[in-house]
Design a protein that fits this description.
- 2 copies of one chain form a homodimer.
- Chain A is an all-alpha fold.
- Chain A contains 16 helices and 2 strands.
- Chain A has helices at about 15-25, 45-65, 70-80, 95-115, 120-140, 150-175, 185-210, 215-240, 245-275, 275-280, 285-290, 295-300, 305-315, 320-335, 335-360, 365-375, and strands spanning about 145, 150.
- The longest helix of chain A has 28 residues, at about 245-275.
- The radius of gyration of chain A is 21 Å and the shape is globular.
- Chains A and B meet through helix 3, helix 5, helix 6 and helix 7 of A and helix 3, helix 5, helix 7 and helix 8 of B.
Amino acid sequence: MTDSLIQPVDTQRRAPRRIGAQARTAHPAGAGDGHPADAADGHEAEEILRRTRASVDPELRAALDGLPGPMRRAALYHFGWQHPDGSPAAGGAGKALRPALVLAAAAALGGPAARDRAVRAAVAVELVHNFTLLHDDVMDRDATRRHRATAWTVFGDADAILAGDALQALALGLLARDVHPAAPAAAARLADCVVELCAGQHADTALEGRGPGGVGLGEVLDMTEAKTGALLGCACAIGALYAGASAQDVDALDAFGREAGLAFQLIDDIIGIWGDPRRTGKPAGADLAARKKSLPVVAALASGTPAAAELAALYARPWDAEDLESTVHAVERAGGRDWAQVEAADRMARAMQALSRAIPEPERAESLLALAEFVTRRTS
Amino acid sequence: MTDSLIQPVDTQRRAPRRIGAQARTAHPAGAGDGHPADAADGHEAEEILRRTRASVDPELRAALDGLPGPMRRAALYHFGWQHPDGSPAAGGAGKALRPALVLAAAAALGGPAARDRAVRAAVAVELVHNFTLLHDDVMDRDATRRHRATAWTVFGDADAILAGDALQALALGLLARDVHPAAPAAAARLADCVVELCAGQHADTALEGRGPGGVGLGEVLDMTEAKTGALLGCACAIGALYAGASAQDVDALDAFGREAGLAFQLIDDIIGIWGDPRRTGKPAGADLAARKKSLPVVAALASGTPAAAELAALYARPWDAEDLESTVHAVERAGGRDWAQVEAADRMARAMQALSRAIPEPERAESLLALAEFVTRRTS
């Protein structure tokens, strides 16, 4: 299902992955962004993300290495570059999706030169993303992130909060020092986005504290847009700013990222309930067992159907083993799955529309499309 | 003692306060900064702070009012403009010392026009100061700030952390939107200062966890500079940047603020032990009773005298009523009081030297001198 949101996927395209990867190694790093040949295989996004890391990591590392000891230690651990004892680790924490969107948007609207000049802005966006992760984990008391213990469990609340504070300062400081004419507008937009991310995190925490019946679908969609869509949109908008795009095109890129972010979250929620455990690595219905108020569940509860009442009753009492299956079926019968699939497709269609307003030529939009396609099936 | 750090104070100058205040109301707000006539009474600083609030509060309120609901509520409460239930309060939380330093430095080096154009930067500095207070109170579990319950005790940790995050973003966002040519350099400097403030807070937390004998005097001075001096220096430096001052003068203003900040902390620590309870509002020796590792105590412990050993023994065991007096005397006999007085005078002398490098004419430096004098006797 998720593949079909953007375009029908020819399953044959998946086979020659090795050939595609080999072909790409002949390209100089970064030169291929937005190049028509890049779309020739389904692993375009992975290659874009690999090139993003190659472009972004040196400046990201340099920024973190400049931090005073305690914040450096917590930050390098959080990014996966150090073990808790400070010894070097392989890194690889995070996919660098947001910096990839910055660079892809800059390349799509301004070519390779614009991409090269946007690396610092891409680093700033990645720093902001990670500042919010550090703080969210403290607030949510989440113990695991990217298969490792969260920073606050290793270094304590204070150092995790301080590391997050320092990463926000690093991000906005990098943009303040960037001589690119778009840097002030990018910094203003990124600062606004931080406020929106904070509002999203607050809403998420507040919704967690309410019973499932007391949560409106509109509220959860707004929270998802603020918490997930805003920074994806901001990343795309900043790339457009660095390409010297018009205000209209910058806003269109923002809308593209936001809508793709919502599609991503909807699909993530669908997979959390109906995903194949062999592919997701999580037991079937894991999100339901955790009583998450994910979008399909909230839509089902709001449906006014007999199945909605049944679902509300199931969510209100302790479960035994058979209840999980009943709950999955209740969400489905109340229309939660259908709604989420239609909504995700609709969001992705809106993302495509916004993108084509700013970039009418499909071949220039290919990297951005590949990244959008990637996020909407990443956990499947 | 504190009065004499800058200049001998003629006690007669305190009497005609009302006359001085009346005379000043004839001046248009703000026009008097740096004007020679301003130094004619000892309440110059209070008048500067009052004018600062008048200049800064409208833009500060507008920035806070633009926040989404939950962060706005916590921030307006923290600033004293709202009660916990959201009803209006009188405000007046905080002295606005840091924005006053921004405006006074701008006026001293660039005249009234430079001061007027630096209001947004002054707001940014005040926002950063309050972001760090919000987060420090969460980390330190401090329940009281400015005679009111701290924000985290009223709204919870998450909302206090998010409000702090949002205030940092507002601060750097304001500078990113400021068209003044000095805004990017000011933003870069303010971002660096945030990182230094985080390092200072980390050091403070780390020192708290150690026994009094395990704390070096140099460490405590470094921590004090990072936690208190850095933002006072940054405020002065940003004012100088907005006046178009040379890099050398900007750095001299930074040094002025840092050294004055250290002098302030030293005097605050002296008052915390030997201050007159009728003037401080705290019982005599309150800081000792709380076992604070204040600068005179750490200096006394590091003195290598027999009194130092006695003091270490007193700090290592529970007290009864007579021990407080013995401890005060031990700090004194070990030279802690003398050292702190000499060090404070030395820091203030260095502050004056730095100031006169950038502003050789005493009459132009009067507002900054008045503010420095104010902070070094504010709690006496």
